[in-house]
C-alpha cells in the first residue's frame, strides 16, 4: 500500500505543478475559445489541461517502474505499454481539438484507432464470466469489438459530463477510487495477479484527478479540455478491460469454498465493466435523454442545448458548487454501493443504508435554496456562504431593481427634452424652478424687474 501511496502522491504533485505553466502556455497559444451560449462559465478560460495530466501520468509510471513490487507489472505483461500508446494517441487528438477543433467523425475515428492500438498490444476481453455457466470464451474478433466499443463509450461518456467546473475530474476520481478498492481486494485478498494492472491504473487516475482538481474547482482557472477528458475515459476503460475476462472464478471458489459465495464475491465482474459504468450511469442516462429529446424535436442528436442534467440543476436554483457536489454524491452512492455488495454478506444492511442515503440525497436535491448557517463557534472554519451575517438596520438597502427603475425613470423624463429644438431648450432653461418659481424670487424674475 505504501508504494501505491507514493505513486499517487508523485502523480498528483507533478500534475498540480505542471498545470500552472500549462495554463500560461494555453493563454499564449490562444487555446481560449469564446464563451458559447450553452456554456456555464462567463469568461473565456484556457484549455489544454490534459497536457499537465499526461505529464503526471508519465511521472507516475516512471516512479512505479522503479519500485520493487510494482515493477513486476511491467515485466509480466504489455498493459503499461498499451496504456501509454493509447493514451498518447488520445491525448494528441484532444490537444488538436482544443486548439483548432476536430470534426466529430474524425474524432470518433481517432478514438477507434487508439482503442485498436491497445487491443493489438493485448488489452482485450478474452472471456466473459456468466453466472451459473462460468467463463465463456469469446473469439479474438468478438473480444476486439467489445473492447473497442467499451473504450469509445467510456471516452465519450466522460467527455460528455465535462460541463461544470470540476465535474468530470471529480466523477472519474470517484470511479477510480471504487475500482481501486475492488481490484485491490482481488489482488491481495485472493492473490489474483491479473488484477495488478487495474490497481496501478486506478492509482494513476486518482493522482491525475486530484492534482488537476486543485486548479479546476469552481471558479476554474483552466479546463482539462478534450485532451484531458478523453484520456481519463480511456484510462478508466483500460482499467476495466484489463481485469474483465482475466479473473478466473475457480480461484475464488477454491478460496471461499462454495459457488454461491463466489457468485456473490464477483457481482461487479459478472457483468463486464459494470463497476465503471455505474459511475457514469447518470451522464449516460442524460446522453440518451438528450438524443431522444433532440430527435423528437426534429433536431440533430449532436445539436447543443442547455437542457442537460447539470443545466437543470442550475435552473432549479442550485449553485454551481452544490450542483457538482450533488452529482458527486449520486456517483459515489452508486459506485461504492456496488462495491459494498461484493464485499459484505449482509445485503439487507447495504440496501437499507443505500435507501437512507438516497433519501438524504433527494432532500438535498429538492431544497436548492436551503443554506444552513453554522454556529458562531465554527464560523471561522466554514465557507462564507454558511456564516451568519449581521442584519443592517441603519440605511435602506437599494436593490438592483430599484436602481434600474430610477434609471428608467430618468430616461423617461429626458426623452421629451430630446424632441425639443435648441431654441426651446434655451427658453426652458430660463424658467425658474423649485422654491424660486413658487415665491417669485428667482434670478430670472429679478432681471425682468
Overview of this protein structure:
This protein is mainly alpha-helical and 449 residues long. It contains 21 helices and two strands. The chain has a two-stranded antiparallel ribbon with strand order 1-2. Helix 1 (2-29) crosses helix 8 (196-216) and helix 7 runs antiparallel to helix 8. It is globular. The protein starts with a helix and ends with a helix.
Task: Give the secondary structure arrangement, pairings included.
Layout: H1 2-29, H2 50-65, H3 71-76, H4 79-99, H5 104-120, E1 127-130, E2 134-137, H6 140-160, H7 167-190, H8 196-216, H9 225-243, H10 249-256, H11 259-265, H12 267-270, H13 274-279, H14 281-296, H15 309-316, H16 320-343, H17 347-366, H18 400-418, H19 422-429, H20 434-439, H21 443-448
Antiparallel strand pairs: 1-2
Helix pairs in contact: 1-2, 1-8, 2-4, 2-8, 2-9, 4-5, 4-9, 5-6, 6-9, 7-8, 7-9, 7-16, 8-9, 10-11, 16-17
What keyword list fits this structure?
single chain, 449 residues, mainly alpha, two-stranded antiparallel ribbon, 21 helices, 2 strands, disordered C terminus
Offer a quick outline of the entry.
The chain has 21 helices and 2 strands. With 449 residues, it is mostly helical.
Give the low-confidence spans. 415-419, 433-449
Largest sheet: 2 strands, antiparallel
H and E order: HHHHHEEHHHHHHHHHHHHHHHH
In what range is the share of β-strand residues? under 5%
Q: What value does the Rg take, in angstroms?
A: 30 Å
**Residue share in helices?**
55-70%
Strand order of the largest sheet: 1-2
